[in-house]
Write a structure and sequence with these properties.
about 240 residues, alpha/beta, 7 helices, about 25% helix, globular
Length: about 240
């Protein structure tokens, strides 16, 4: 299986580091987030990785080249002309996954010990259009799932905004972890163009396609999005 690491974002929450560096190269205990996630994918047998780049793209490309991909085959998906967000970035990289049945995706600023192998096995056994890693942690935005762990909607608890695409009750809010396993059939179903979020893609497809969750509550997980979270990450990941 191949994977994609989403590393094109501006990383505005991680200022001042991202004023002169990409967030992918933020350091946690002597290793960049990108290096750590390439190593994480290797522990689950994934050595073929697509990395999309935009903000300080040259620094990421230099790091990958200098370190020989940290032992993995790295393909760069170039978004230097325009950052395409999660959905647009994944769609642009679609040719990299020709011939694959499915692929994994993760945000570069996520560190976790989630059992990705088990998540992939669940996806391959149940064959949904996508499997989304979630936990029961508190956040402001949630995906909503039914009793069968199928995506039915989304809500923002701060603004009160809610989008329900399958009218089922009860619905259970789960916090998305920024890690997906996606069937390549999804590419032919994506109607969005240009810059767009995968959240919009999933909500547009969930009414007529099965999108499931994989709950990894209890595993280590941190979103290294802010300077103070780097300190917490260093306590969790050596």
């Amino acid at each position: 299986m191949k994977a994609m690491i989403l590393a094109a974002g501006l990383g505005t929450r991680l200022k001042p580091w991202t004023d002169s560096h990409p967030k992918a190269l933020a350091i946690v205990n002597g290793k960049s987030l990108l290096q750590r996630n390439i190593a994480y994918l290797q522990t689950h047998g994934i050595y073929d990785v697509v990395v999309n780049v935009h903000h300080f793209a040259d620094q990421i490309i230099d790091a990958v080249t200098t370190n020989n991909g940290w032992g993995s085959a790295i393909t760069i998906s170039d978004e230097t002309s325009e950052v395409l967000e999660t959905g647009g970035g994944i769609k642009k990289a679609a040719p990299c996954f020709d011939g694959e049945e499915s692929f994994a995706v993760m945000n570069v600023d996520i560190l976790t010990d989630l059992d990705l192998s088990t998540m992939i096995a669940q996806h391959q056994q149940q064959k949904p259009l996508a499997t989304l890693a979630v936990t029961d942690r508190e956040t402001s935005r949630y995906f909503l799932f039914n009793n069968q762990a199928e995506l039915c909607g989304w809500q923002n608890v701060k603004t009160g905004e809610e989008k329900i695409v399958k009218q089922q009750q009860p619905l259970y809010p789960k916090a998305f972890s920024g890690i997906h396993v996606i069937d390549t059939k999804l590419f032919s179903l994506m109607k969005q163009q240009g810059k767009f979020s995968m959240v919009d893609v999933y909500l547009s497809l969930a009414a007529n396609n099965t999108i499931q969750c994989f709950n990894h509550s209890g595993s280590k997980f941190i979103d290294v999005g802010k300077p103070e979270s780097v300190v917490k990450a260093e306590q969790l990941f050596q």
